[in-house]
Amino acid sequence: MNNERFDFDEIIDRRHTHSVKWDFCPSDDVIPMWVADMDFKAAPCIIDALKERLEHGVFGYANVPEEFYDSIINWFSRRHNWTIDRNWIEYTTGVVPAINAVLRAITMPGENVVVLTPVYNCFFVCIQSNNCKVVEVPLIYKEDYSYSINFDALDKALSDENTHTLLFCNPHNPAGRLWSKDEMLKVNNLCLKHGVTVISDEIHCEMVMPGHEYTPFATISQEAQDNCITCGSPSKSFNIAGLQAAFIVSNNLDIKARINKALIDNQVCSINPFGLEAFMAAYNYGENWILQFNEYIDGNFRLMRDMMNKELPEFHFTPIEGTYLAWIDVTPTGMTSTEVTKKILDVAKVLVNDGTMYGKSGDGFIRVNLATQRSVVEEATRRIINAFK
Question: pLDDT-based confidence at 1, cuts 50/70/90?
Answer without folding.
Answer: low
